[in-house]
Amino acid sequence: MTRKVCVIGVGNTDFNSMTPDVSWKEFMYEACKKAYVDAGINPREDVDSFITCAEDYWEGFSIFDEFVPDQIGAVLRPCCTVCGDGIQGLASAYMQIMTGLVDTVAVESHSKISDALSYGDVVLHAMDPIYEKPVAGQVERERFSGPSYPEKSPKPLVGKTDEKGRVHPYYIAGLEMQHYLRSTKTTEEQCASVVVKNKRNAYDNPMADYECSLIEDDVMQSEYLFKPVKELDISPLVDGAICFVLAEEGVAKNLGVEPIYLNGFGYSSETPWFSSRGMDAGYATMASKMAYKMAGIKDPKGAFDIIEVDDRFSYKELQHIEALGLAKPGEAAKMLENGELEKDGKLPTNISGGSLGIGNCLEATGLQRSLEIVTQLRGFAGKRQVKNPEVGLAQSWRGIPSGTGAAAIFSRYPEVKA
Amino acid sequence: MSDTKIEGQPGYAPGTHVSGRDIRDKKIPYTWWEVEAQYAYSLGPANARFLKELKEGKIIGRTCKKCDRVLVPPRMFCEWCYSPTNEWVYLKDTGTVETFSISYLDPDANRIEEPILVGVVSIDGASPKHGFMHYFGEMKPEELHIGMRVKAVWKPEEERTGSVRDIKYFKPLKDGGDE
Question: Does domain A5-114+237-411 have CATH number 3.40.47.10?
Answer without folding.
Answer: yes
